[in-house]
C-alpha cells in the first residue's frame, strides 16, 4: 500500500485520507481523494560526501544519480508506503473535529526504522495546514534534558527568543512555554524514551491546552518509569504500534527511492535490490543507508552494477554510519558506559557498572545503566547480549567498536 504525504494536498476523509492498492486494476473508494494515489517517490540518504558546488557538473556521480538530495539522511519522502493504517489511526486521534477533540495523549512505539517519524511528521503537517492547529516537534535524541526540551518547544512556538538554552532555568522556560500557548497545541516528542528527566512529560501534560504525542521504540521505556501520579494520566495514553517492515515492503520503498533519485538503469538489479532489503533486517533506515553506500561504492570504484560483495561492504558501512550518529547523540554518561565496554571487553552488568562508577563524579544509578545495557544499546545495535553466559554478559557490536576506536 502506498500513501502520499504532506506535499500532496490533503490527508483523509476528515483530512482527505485515501487508500490505494498497489494493484493497478483496483480503484480507490470514491470518497477518498488523491493524497494516497500512486506516485513516483524519493529515497533517503545516499552519501555523506556531497561534491562542492563548483564541482557538481564534473562529478561523475551525476551521470549515475540524477537527484542525490532524496538519498540524504533525514529526507522526508513524498510518499509513505505501507503505513496507511497507522496514518488513519493518528489522523483520528489528532483530529480536532472528532467528538472530544484532539486526544490528550497518544503514544507511538515500534522498532527503529519502522517509519514512526516520517509518518507522524506528515500527519502533523496536514493537521496544521488543514485545521490551523499549532504543532511542535522535538527530537529527544538530541534534546534529552528538561531544559533542552522546553527551549526547543519555546523556540518552535515563538521563533527567536532572548532566553539562553544552557543558562536559563527550566522553571523559567516552562513559564515562557505556558505563556506562549493559548490554544490546543500538539507537542510531538520523538524518541521520548531517550529523555533523562521524564518530569518534563508531567510539566507539559499539565499545561491545559497541550496535547502530547510521544514516540519511542518500546512503550515501557517511554512511560514505565514515570512516577505514579504522572503514569496514571500519561501511562494510559492511546497507542499506535508500528511493526517492522517485511522484505517485500522494503523492496518497494527502495524502488521508490531509486526512481526519485533518477539512478541510471541497470545499476541496481532486482536481485541486488532484494539483497539490500535483506541486509536492512526489516529496518528501513538501515536498508536505505545500505543502498546509499552501495551506490557510492559503484561510483567511486567505477563498477558496472551493485553486486553481492558490494552489498556486504555497504551494509557494514551503513551499520557504522548509524552507530556513529547514535553514539554522537548519547549523553556523556551513556557514552562513558560504552567506552568502559570498549576498554574491558565483554562483561557482566555489575562489572561494567563498577568500572563506570569509578570514572565519573555523578554516576547514574545501577538500575538506569542496566536499562541502557539490556534495552537501549541493543535496540540501536551498539551492544549485544551474550545470553549463553551465566550471568549474561554484554559486549560492543563491531559497528560500535569501529566508531570508538
Automatic annotation (TrEMBL):
Residues 51-60 have a biased composition (Basic and acidic residues). GO terms for biological process: DNA replication. It comes from the Archaea. Residues 102-236 form the AAA+ ATPase domain. It holds the Pfam family AAA_22. Residues 21-60 are annotated as: Disordered. InterPro entries: AAA+_ATPase, AAA_22, ORC1/CDC6, P-loop_NTPase, RNA-helicase_DEAD-box_CS. The keyword Protein biosynthesis does not apply. Keywords: ATP-binding, DNA replication, Nucleotide-binding, Plasmid. GO terms for molecular function: ATP binding; ATP hydrolysis activity. PANTHER family: CELL DIVISION CONTROL PROTEIN 6-RELATED, ORC1-TYPE DNA REPLICATION PROTEIN. Belongs to the CDC6/cdc18 family. This is AAA family ATPase. It comes from Natrinema pallidum.
Amino acid at each position: 500500500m502506498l500513501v502520499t504525504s504532506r506535499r500532496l494536498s490533503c490527508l483523509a476523509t476528515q483530512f482527505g485520507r485515501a487508500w490505494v492498492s498497489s494493484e493497478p486494476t483496483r480503484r480507490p473508494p470514491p470518497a477518498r481523494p488523491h493524497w494516497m494515489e500512486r506516485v513516483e517517490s524519493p529515497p533517503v540518504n545516499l552519501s555523506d560526501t556531497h561534491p562542492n558546488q563548483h564541482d557538481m557538473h564534473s562529478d561523475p556521480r551525476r551521470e549515475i544519480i540524477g537527484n542525490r538530495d532524496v538519498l540524504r539522511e533525514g529526507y522526508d519522502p513524498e510518499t509513505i508506503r505501507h503505513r496507511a493504517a497507522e496514518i488513519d489511526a493518528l489522523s483520528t486521534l489528532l483530529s480536532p473535529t472528532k467528538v472530544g477533540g484532539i486526544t490528550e495523549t497518544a503514544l507511538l512505539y515500534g522498532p527503529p526504522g519502522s517509519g514512526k517519524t516520517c509518518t507522524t511528521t506528515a500527519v502533523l503537517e496536514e493537521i496544521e495546514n488543514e485545521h490551523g492547529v499549532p504543532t511542535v516537534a522535538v527530537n529527544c535524541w538530541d534534546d534529552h534534558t528538561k531544559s533542552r526540551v522546553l527551549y526547543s518547544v519555546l523556540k518552535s512556538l515563538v521563533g527567536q527568543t532572548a532566553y539562553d538554552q544552557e543558562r536559563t532555568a527550566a522553571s523559567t522556560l516552562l513559564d515562557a512555554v505556558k505563556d506562549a500557548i493559548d490554544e490546543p497545541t500538539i507537542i510531538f516528542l520523538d524518541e521520548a524514551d531517550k529523555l533523562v528527566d521524564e518530569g518534563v512529560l508531567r510539566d507539559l501534560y499539565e499545561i491545559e491546552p497541550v496535547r502530547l504525542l510521544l514516540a519511542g521504540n518500546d512503550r515501557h521505556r517511554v512511560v514505565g518509569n514515570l512516577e505514579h501520579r504522572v503514569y496514571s494520566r500519561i501511562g494510559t495514553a492511546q497507542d499506535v504500534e508500528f511493526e517492522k517492515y517485511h522484505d517485500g515492503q522494503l523492496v518497494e520503498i527502495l524502488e521508490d527511492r531509486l526512481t526519485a533519485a533518477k539512478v541510471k538503469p541497470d545499476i541496481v538489479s532486482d536481485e541486488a535490490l532484494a539483497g539490500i532489503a535483506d541486509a536492512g533486517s526489516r529496518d528501513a533506515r538501515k536498508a536505505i543507508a545500505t543502498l546509499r553506500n552501495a551506490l557510492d561504492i559503484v561510483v567511486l570504484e567505477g563498477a558496472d552494477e551493485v553486486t553481492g560483495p558490494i552489498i556486504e561492504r555497504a551494509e557494514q558501512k551503513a551499520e557504522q554510519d548509524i552507530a556513529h550518529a547514535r553514539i554522537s547523540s548519547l549523553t556523556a554518561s551513556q557514552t562513558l558506559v560504552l567506552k568502559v565496554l570498549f576498554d574491558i571487553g565483554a562483561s557482566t552488568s555489575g562489572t561494567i557498572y563498577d568500572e563506570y562508577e569509578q570514572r565519573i563524579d555523578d554516576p547514574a544509578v545501577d538500575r538506569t545503566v542496566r536499562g541502557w545495557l539490556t534495552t537501549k544499546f541493543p535496540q540501536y545495535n551498539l551492544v549485544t547480549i551474550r545470553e549463553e553466559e551465566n550471568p549474561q554478559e554484554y559486549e560492543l557490536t563491531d559497528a560500535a567498536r569501529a566508531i570508538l576506536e
